[in-house]
Write a structure and sequence with these properties.
mainly alpha, Tetracycline Repressor, domain 2, Four Helix Bundle (Hemerythrin (Met), subunit A), 2 domains, single chain
Length: about 290
């Protein structure tokens, strides 16, 4: 028997790990979780198993797929900004990343189609937006930031569509996610400014400088905090929402102040990472505000 020959070699394990890195597993988990949260809010009950499984799987795979395709188109920029990533470091080839991206996206769209037409339409719209962004929108700067942030807001609408009910509360939460992520995208432009200059991407940081980009990002974080206070005022959520969302808001405010005080690349990188945490806490607030009390 030659069972040992079938074992995963160190090179194969390295390639598999690289594919996982390209897929951005944390982002995939967060967006899948956001869909389940949206299903819970829309239905007013825990989603059925097939709704939760297919909805979260679809969103996660579409995220993984478009991230892999993003790295394919971003190769030259990443050679400067992130040479340690799987493609510029040569661990996997551009063709492999592109193939993984297409395969994951196809399965993600199939999962959405298994739910209903509304879910498929929303998923297809998100996929097409991200494909356009990767091919052309990325170099447009702030417009490209808007495209990405629309896709971050869409999981709430997708989750509602998955259970057949898109509510005004979900639309409001979608707007909050859009605004917070738009700030994060502008912050990311500060981190990526060297590569973006080479690729002639018209980001806020490239056109107006890191200081102006920091101010705009902070303004968007402030706007997200302001939006977060409206659901309790409009009686969209229960009293459990406020203490949790205030924790998220405190994080956004702290990151905003940090960015205004220090807009260099290293601090922007740190803020970009912390904003993911504040957005996750925001998701927990959405759940807390939607349970029956």
């Amino acid at each position: 028997m030659r069972s040992s020959s079938r074992m995963l070699t160190p090179k194969g394990a390295s390639r598999l790990f690289a594919i996982l890195r390209v897929a951005r597993p944390i982002n995939c988990l967060m967006i899948g979780f956001a869909v389940v949260v949206a299903e819970f809010i829309a239905a007013g009950r825990p989603p059925q198993l097939h709704e939760a499984a297919l909805g979260s799987l679809s969103a996660a795979l579409l995220m993984a797929g478009t991230m892999a395709i993003n790295d394919y188109f971003d190769l030259e920029t990443d050679r400067i900004n992130r040479p340690y990533r799987p493609l510029p470091s040569g661990i996997i080839t551009p063709r492999q990343a592109f193939s993984v991206g297409l395969a994951a996206s196809a399965v993600g769209l199939s999962a959405a189609a298994s739910l209903n037409m509304g879910a498929l339409t929303t998923a297809a719209a998100a996929f097409l937006l991200m494909v356009y962004y990767n091919m052309k929108g990325k170099r447009s700067g702030f417009f490209g930031n808007i495209l990405v942030s629309i896709c971050i807001g869409l999981p709430f609408i997708f989750g509602g569509a998955a259970v057949g009910r898109v509510t005004s509360t979900l639309l409001f939460f979608s707007a909050m996610a859009f605004t917070a992520n738009l700030g994060r995208e502008v912050t990311k432009g500060i981190v990526d400014v060297d590569g973006d200059l080479l690729m002639k991407a018209r980001t806020v940081a490239v056109i107006h400088g890191s200081k102006a980009a920091s101010r705009l990002a902070a303004l968007l974080y402030f706007a997200a905090v302001g939006l977060s206070l409206w659901p309790p005022a409009l009686k969209m959520v229960n009293p459990l929402y406020l203490p949790v969302v205030l924790l998220s808001d405190a994080g956004f405010l702290s990151s905003s102040v940090s960015l205004l005080r220090n807009h260099d690349r290293e601090n922007a990188e740190r803020v970009k990472g912390m904003v993911m945490l504040w957005m996750f806490i925001g998701l927990l607030a959405f759940i807390a505000g939607s349970v029956s009390v």
